[in-house]
Amino acid sequence: MKKKKNVLWVVLSIVFTLFFLITLIGGPIANNYSQIINMVLGVEGSKVIGDEGITYFEPDYTSDQQVDEGQKVVESVVANGAVLLMNKDNALPLKSGDKITLASINSSKFVYGGTGSGGMNTDGVDSLKDALEKDGFEVNPTMWSFYTEGAGKEYGRILASGSLNNYIFENSEFKVNEVPVSKYSSNEWDSIKSYGDAAVVVFSRVCGEGADLPWYGAGDADGNILQLSKDEKDLLAKLSELKANGSLKKIVVLLNAANAIELDFLNPDICGVDYGIDACMWIGEVGQGISAVGELLNGTVNPSGKLVDTYCYDNLTSPALQNAHATSYTNSKAKGLSFSEGNNEYYVAYQEGIYVGYRYYETRYEDVVMGTENVGEYDYASTVAYPFGYGLSYSDISYDSIAMEEDSDNLKFTVNVSNSSNVDGREAVQIYMQSPYTDYDRLNGVEKASVELVGFTKVDVPAGGSAVAEITVPKTELRAYDANTAGTYILDAGDYYFTSANGSHEALNNILAAKDYTVENGMTSDGNRDMVCQYNVPVQDNTVFATAITGNEIQNQLDHADLNRREGDNGDGIVYLTRSDWEGTMPVANITNGSYEAAYKMPASDDMVAQMNEVYTKNTDGEMPVVGKEGNLNLAQFVGVPIDGSIGIDGETYTWDDLVDQVSFNEMAKLIGQTYHSTAPVASVSKPATKDENGPQGITATLTGGGSSTSYTSEDLMAASFDAEVATAVGRSMGNDCLLANGKAYSGIYGPGVNIHRTPYSGRNFEYYSEDPFISGKTCSAEVSGIQSKGVYVYMKHFALNDQETARDGICVWTNEQAARELYLQAFEYPVVEASAYCVMTGFNRLGCVWAGGDYGLITGILRGEWGMPGFVLTDFSNNNNYMDVLNGLMAGGDGWDCNDGAKWTQKLVEYKDDPTVVAAMKEATKHILYTTANSNAMNGVSANMQVVEVVTWWQILIIVLDVVFGILAAFSIFMLVRSIKKNK
Question: Each residue of 154-166: pLDDT tens digit?
């Protein structure tokens, strides 16, 4: 019995001592992660004390009202953004009451949005069948049951498996997986006779974070997931057969994807088969706005969207696809480069330069028409199905006239459009520009596209009436970036052509007509020279656009990303695609037997490897900045004060720097190192904590407890509306969602996504607007204005040139500065300059060998120095990627690390507490974060007479109590064990 007692006290002593040690050691560790734990548990780690606070930003609605308002906004995006591509013999609109058949497995497995961190929960959204029935259609129940309950149920798209960090190189897991025609019975086909007013065929593709769509070696679509698969074509053939025998009247195709599906199947001359398709409409990814699809089909809504990407018969004609995916440096093994260990094995070369999307297809077409030397073999008509900016409606819209006026800073265009039909319509009126391609340009490597979108607006055009569109084009749109000689923006001498048309191709044909070219020269159709205005610049000017709005000189900042300008050993450099020699510079990838070899192959030099592995070296020399100074300034006093402004108190003037002087080193280290979906409270200046959330299609439910919210459309559908008011309404609605979120409001949103659709296969094209930087940037500006009007700061992402998912962690992007500035950065520039966007999220990628978040030229040189962005720069998720180093980022002008193990970055900063350079950079970062917070809804309830203090939360108290209890129990057990042993003796 005595031995049993000894055993009991031994066990209890061990157990309670173990628990005591766990709470003793785990308590401080948990406190290091208090922000994350507080977010997960939904508790506040700080509180505001003092007088009654001020409400700076209020929602427009109650929570219940916002649910209804959000629904209206999303439906408006779909209604204004859907693009009618083909409508033979006015097959659309259908009539309410028509009996229709939904065909294809995707009709029952509709794509509402993309996947990954930007994905939304749409479980409660209507199915396509339910939505169409609510809009008056009778939907074939037999076919629907086949897809949802019968033999067809087992089919449907198969996506790549794995986590967000499982990058798919072979892409063999992607499959369209349409139901084979052999799986249908006569019962399904016979049912169409009773529901034969129309077959609505849905072709869907879905993409998401972590994996690009494959264009070789994949699944069941001949290696190219954006082709129709054999089973999809077989379905069309069967429906065509039923149409031919009278069982079916019409075949209508809906393109339910944010990635540009190849459209060869719409043109019998291209695909060799006439599938009898009567109409085709692109609807993108509709979020919770699916009810608008039925309204578009029955004519309640007249389509008015325009394409924001070029739709081809064969996507592989894209020059960018000749160097996409990820390519290992040819000597990666010899140099010890590794994707899994150093994120430094892969690169991608933007060898196409500025010739992305319509900038390539239209420019080469013009050079063919003009008989330019070395244009090579190129046939526009067999390449492009529908051009950028194109879209039909149920009205008959025509462009009647264009006029131009000039003032000191702008060109102002007046465009008259008319509607000869009996259906009220809306028209997205676009202005395209052609700038001269001069001898100077050819000699100095300045490339010029034949047409560029430079303005747009949306007008209502009544039936039988007309409308006037007024569009202002700032003269800054005439600039071109000369990276090789002037090292800045230049204004070329010569004639600039402006026109308004239904898309880029019609615009170019108008310009060609103004130059006296006709179909006899190889044009696809004659243009309208009366719709063209000319503007002449007599002398080239290399200074007029060489100064930024900040007053700083604009100069090259990205030479390190250009293999022809980078300092160091760059081998033979790189040949970029140029319109002066299409044939000799067109990159060509080797795609055979399901394998892909990029057009441009290169080794990594020793200095490249060294630059990829470069780390900041500690320097304790110099004067230490003021830190933790006693004072009575608080953040609320600086609400609305510009970052270079000041306030007056009792006759004294104080700046933001004075406020930052009060912040302690430890507060700065935590504020910078731990910004995972939040920023920490700073008691010394009464800064409240903030909460941030994903994403581009609305705030999402994640680890941080975002909860449900409005599910908005894919961003390309927003852009396709060509309507700034629609985009602003989306932004304002998102802002209301953030204000009305359960618990404390969200103050920041990880979006919008502003990268470019460099190719149709990017995994996150649904999060980005377009292949074109102008429509991307202008749509983003409007959306940002709406979001930030509710005190929600945006993190536009992913800054910059993070245009693919494959090997995104650390991939080296090689490009020239003209392409970088005119395409990939311009989309970010508009919302910063025009809408005062507060923040950006940097990319995982490198520019050349320099991580984007640690690129001084990109962040300090361009983003802050030229564009004047005052807010803060946040990394993308930086948990496992050591190349996204806190010191490298700070030295470049970065401010916060999105990392749920942020304590590691905080601790690293502590190790540099005696480095004046690091501390000075930390103070700058702190100022940017404080400034952003001061202009956000996080200040609601806070005033200058109040104080923000940190509090001990219930879980922290629990840990302390458990620590004490287990300590007492352990001590008691040990005491009883010793006592028992002594008694036994």
Answer: 999 887 654 444 3
